[in-house]
From TrEMBL:
One GO CC annotation: extracellular space
Gene Ontology molecular-function annotations: metalloendopeptidase inhibitor activity
InterPro entries: CYSTATIN_LXN (IPR049897), Cystatin_sf (IPR046350), Latexin (IPR009684)
Keywords, sorted A to Z: Protease inhibitor, Repeat
Protein name, UniProt field: LXN protein
One Pfam family per UniProt: LXN
Species name: Sterrhoptilus dennistouni
Length: 168
């Protein structure tokens, strides 16, 4: 619907449980894109039918593991050419998925349809504060043109603060 406030979209989604790949949860979302503003975030109202499991414990475990590494994590080609993601890199891939969502939101038009194809490269960067920092090169597949586009993006993450994404 288009009204005097902006563009409104209604979505029905199936969300995959991050901790249990065989479980999905249904939800509906109302997304309102404000008129005339390309920099304002859309207003999103989500209703979940069912219960999402908490990832608090897994988040804290991942955070502690990354903070305790003697050498910063570096990895390439996630998933590999066969679609496999090593279990220890699943959280890295999930953060890339969050970052790709930000990139897609910032760069999409009515004529594009982006999809995260692969983490080409990721490197953890040591920080003096409590955040974890990961510098990514993500490959986004633009489904309409069939182009695969590389994007450089930095993700800061802390279990209590969530993810913050910036692109270069």
């Amino acid at each position: 619907d288009i009204d005097d406030v902006g563009h409104k979209y209604y979505l029905e989604l199936e969300l995959e449980d991050v901790l249990d790949k065989d479980r999905t949860v249904s939800c509906t979302a109302e997304v309102l894109y404000p008129l005339g503003s390309k920099t304002s975030a859309p207003d999103v109202q989500v209703t979940v039918q069912g219960e999402l499991r908490s990832t608090e414990e897994a988040d804290q475990e991942f955070y502690n593991q990354m903070r305790s590494l003697e050498k910063e994590l570096e990895a390439e080609n996630i998933p590999d050419s066969h679609g496999n993601i090593p279990p220890e890199l699943e959280p890295i891939h999930l953060l890339a998925w969050v970052a790709s969502g930000f990139l897609i939101w910032q760069n999409s038009t009515e004529n594009t349809k982006f999809h995260l194809a692969q983490v080409k490269r990721v490197k953890q960067v040591k920080r003096s504060d409590e955040d974890l920092q990961f510098d990514y090169v993500l490959l986004l597949h633009e489904m309409v043109s069939q182009e695969v586009l590389p994007w450089e993006v930095t993700v800061l993450w802390h279990p209590q603060n969530g993810a913050r994404v910036s692109q270069s």
